[in-house]
Design a protein that fits this description.
about 375 residues, alpha/beta, Aspartate Aminotransferase, domain 1, Aspartate Aminotransferase, domain 2, seven-stranded mixed β-sheet, binds pyridoxal-5'-phosphate
Length: about 375
């Protein structure tokens, strides 16, 4: 027998209410029943996105909504800033390049957050820049960027601010409207506690003006079609009906909890995880801008990082994430996002201690668990 624990930064575990909703018999999407679900879902999304603007639902993984943002805002030959401090920031650059948009890529050292002043300088130096593509939580490094400050910087320029909040939305604070985020992009399988397959995108008035001008080729992800449908509480194409039913349940759970409680739960789990890592004599990869949705920890000298993650998964069914790209084997990442609470973190740390001990790493057994308990007891 195996009892699985999923502590990865996407997909994240599913609440039973979500599993149940997904398993219901399918209904047709052009019906009053589905329309009433869509109506509730739209309200719930606005609550979680903290926006009064439209939030479009796309059937794709999160990257689909990133691509939708690029092709709906810009035209070939136009200029944009992409902030890359990890694998996901680089994705903005790659998508822009795929559509003939000229990205000015800002390289941020992996493990650090972007300095909003650097973006301000770039915007002043090049008034032709039409969009700034940023990342809320750079999942590959475990960094949270200061979106509020970025919003202040971009707001007064003619550019729009687009934020990849695929990781972090519904787990840490992101005030789409109050922070002047023009497009907020997210996906279903992280903070929203759903299986992969849905993506979301919000649009401000400033962003919509660009959408109406954009000449990039697009069909499935044309937001003008999505808008026409949404205005009639409909979707342009067949939606992932079961996932939307499940979304309705997860959004209800989130409204019941309240965003403030959700944010403080995530913060506490992150504090406990960081505290445990330090108590084990480990080093955090991103100590100055550590994210509250995923903690990345440096693999200690003499330990095979990939083997550590594999052993936790294959021997004990506790799945955490290893490092990506240039961080492969150098860090491991423990997610504390979505349907996760303190005792899941305790399990994760217990398993980490067990495997570290088996691999010959020297520390006081239980030191990490004690540190985590102390945070949770506060
Ligand atoms: C997971 C993730 C993505 C990719 O989303 P997919 O659903 O795999 O397309 C993009 N950006 C960030 C920050 C992520 O964490």
């Amino acid at each position: 027998m195996r009892k699985n624990y999923l502590l990865t930064p996407g997909p994240t575990p599913l609440p039973p209410e979500v599993c149940e909703a997904q398993a219901r018999p399918i209904i047709h999407h052009r019906t009053p029943q589905f329309q009433s679900v869509l109506k509730e879902v739209e309200e719930g999304l606005k609550y979680v996105f903290q926006t009064a603007n439209d939030v479009f639902i796309l059937t794709s993984s999160g990257t689909g909504a990133m691509e939708a943002a690029v092709v709906n805002l810009l035209s070939p030959g136009e200029a944009a800033i992409t902030i890359q401090g990890g694998k996901f920031g680089e994705r903005w650059t790659d998508i822009c390049n795929s559509y003939g948009i000229k990205p000015e890529a800002i390289d941020v050292e992996w493990g650090k957050a972007v300095d909003p002043q650097e973006i301000q300088k770039k915007l002043k130096a090049n008034p032709k820049i039409k969009a700034v593509f940023a990342t809320l939580c750079e999942t590959s490094t475990g960094v949270t960027n200061d979106i509020e400050k970025l919003g202040q910087v971009v707001k007064d320029s003619s550019a729009v601010l687009v934020v990849d909040a695929i990781s972090g939305l519904g787990a840490i604070d992101l005030k789409t409207d109050a922070w002047s985020v023009d497009m907020c992009v997210s996906g279903s399988q992280k903070g929203l506690m759903l299986p992969p397959g849905l993506a979301f995108i919000s649009t401000s008035k400033k962003a919509w003006a660009l959408v109406l001008e954009s000449k990039s080729p697009k069909y499935y992800f044309d937001l003008k079609e999505a808008k026409k449908a949404l205005d009639k509480t409909d979707t342009a194409y067949t939606p992932a009906i079961s996932l939307v039913m499940a979304l309705n349940e997860s959004l209800k759970m989130m409204r019941q909890d309240g965003m403030e409680n959700i944010f403080s739960r995530h913060k506490k789990m992150a504090d406990a995880t960081r505290s445990a890592a330090l108590a084990l004599g480990l080093e955090l990869f991103a100590p100055t801008a550590a994210s509250d949705v995923v903690t990345s920890v440096k693999v200690p000298a003499g330990i095979d990082g990939e083997k550590l993650v594999k052993t936790m998964r294959d021997a004990y069914a506790v799945t955490i994430a290893g490092g990506q790209s240039e961080l492969k084997g150098k860090v491991f990442r423990i997610a504390h996002m979505g349907y996760i609470e303190e005792f899941d973190i305790i399990v994760g740390i217990a398993c980490l201690e067990k495997v570290l001990a088996q691999m010959g790493y020297k520390f006081n057994i239980g030191a990490g668990l004690r540190a985590a308990q102390e945070v949770f007891l506060k």
